[in-house]
Amino acid sequence: MKKCIINILNILNIIFKYVPYYGILSIIDSILSTLVNICFNLILIRIVADKVIEGYGFYDIIPYVYYVYLLIIIASIVKFTKSKCLKPLAVNKLYNELHAKIFDKAVSIDLACFDNVQFYNEFFLSIKNIDTKIMELFEYIIRLLFLVLTLSGTIAVIFTLSPIYLLICMISILINWLSISIKNKYLFTYDVEMNNLKRQSEYINRLFYLSDYIKEIKIFNLKDSILKKFRANVDTMRKTITKYQKKFIIIGILVNFVADSLIIDGLLIIKLSFDVLVKKTLSVGSVISIIKGVSNLQWILQDLIEVLGDIHINTRYIDKYNEFINKENVVSDGDKELILADENIIEFKNVWFKYNSQDEYVLKDINLKISSNEKIALVGRNGAGKSTLIKLLLRFYDVSKGEILFNGVNIKEFKLDEYRKIFSPVFQNYNMYAATIEENISMDICNEYTANVNLAITSVGLDNKFNNSKLSLKSYLNKEIYDESVDLSGGEKQKIAISRAIARKDNSEIFIFDEPNSYLDAISEYEITRTINKIFDHKITITISHRLGNIQESDCIYVLDNGSIKEYGKHEELISKNGLYAHMYNAQAKRYIFEKKVG
């Protein structure tokens, strides 16, 4: 209950912070609606009926009607203005503000969270129509205000006539309250179960409209196996619906038959008939007022229970949203300003690391030092720990043991945003965004890096593509969003990814290339490798590559195996050692010679 009240206060705070005009008008609307209900349904009808029986004329009664209908007109204008004019604008404003907050949090949250399936479920719940959920909850709160005010007025009117009628209604409402409370308990668990199933269904739906998937579905004839999973998921949904539907039917029978038919329709009518026909203690106006009042009280209390239940259920979604927004990161922000030196140095000192979900260390006792103007390479078999080492350097994760230093200072002490700005990584799994090619290269809506965009496309050879086709920097990518977008080959997309680093050559200090040539042809691979070495000759560059021919000019090559550095040195030194590096290099060289002979 306490948490529910806190959530209600949070919702009111959000509404009056972002859309105060809508919040204020909603309260006014609720008050006016209450006055209309009490004045029209209980007071006006009683007055008119009694005045007519007592012999009053039309002109004696019309002033009462006039004032009530004036109130109705004012209330209607306020309600129309709120729902038709202000609500669409308020929903749009909430959508903008809340999703901006969610996006900010998603960027700042630990990368480790995205390795957790449970996090995805909670994340999906937290962002699932959160703006409409908050608006719905606010509407429930306003509805609650209206019901409480109307309930107070109705109870006062009925109590002045006879407390017995109030007691009959309360018995019915008690049954309603118990049944709806049980129903609401099931509703939330039902929604959570269905949410996970819907997320799986949406994933399968995406497979059939994203081009990267549809190609493999066609070639490998995956349709049947995917449809099998889809149908299994739908069948699980059906079973879940059936399981809860039985419970909801039983609850519905309890409410509709026992509470409404037996108690209200039966007991209440018997009592009212007795008072009118036998005791003759009620006037015509009083009878009408009691019937309207009891009806009023019945639906008000039923509505009140349902609204409280809806608030209780929906505040659980707000709980998920608040948990997500307030989630504390393991990778915490430092408070130290980062100051660059004439010669910057990165140092790994006795670094060990393992993922939270694993018992084994992925990196073991890593020691290495990199200085400005130095080009190093990380090589090794798949799963050796190369990409994990980069994730630690970028502080996507923090080390389990040991420390990473930048110019002698533990990187945990720096402000995260400032620290990450000195890096320009080209990830192995890069992405193209629904934006222009220029924006995909600059990767900055403030155009901080656009000055070097032309240099970047020339350096990777994309200028020839632009000169010989309709392609330009203003061309859009992603057909899912833009109808007139262009298609690029895998190699061209990789060139754009490399262009991002070149565009930042004057703004970053450390450049990371994780398999930068995997989609490139041999000539492009050779030319871009030379370009990278030339453009970044005064910077720190770290290259991860399985193509050992591309890293021969590195100042130092670190060979990782099973999470440890097995050997390091220049290309010639490692070849002379005849160790793991020499074995990998010679194996590649033999393959190239064999392919050349076969070709």
Describe this structure in words.
This protein has helices spanning 2-18, 20-53, 58-108, 117-127, 130-161, 163-207, 211-219, 223-279, 284-325, 386-393, 416-421, 437-442, 453-459, 462-467, 490-503, 522-535, 571-577, 580-598; strands at 345-353, 363-371, 375-380, 401-406, 409-410, 423-426, 510-514, 540-544, 556-561, 564-569. The chain is an alpha/beta fold and 599 residues long. The chain folds into 3 domains: 2-325, ABC transporter type 1, transmembrane domain (ABC transporter transmembrane region fold, Up-down Bundle); 331-422 and 510-599, P-loop containing nucleotide triphosphate hydrolases (Rossmann fold), CATH 3.40.50.300; 431-508, no CATH class. The longest helix is centred in the middle third of the chain and has 57 residues, at 223-279. It is a multi-pass membrane protein. Residues 30-264 form the ABC transmembrane type-1 domain.
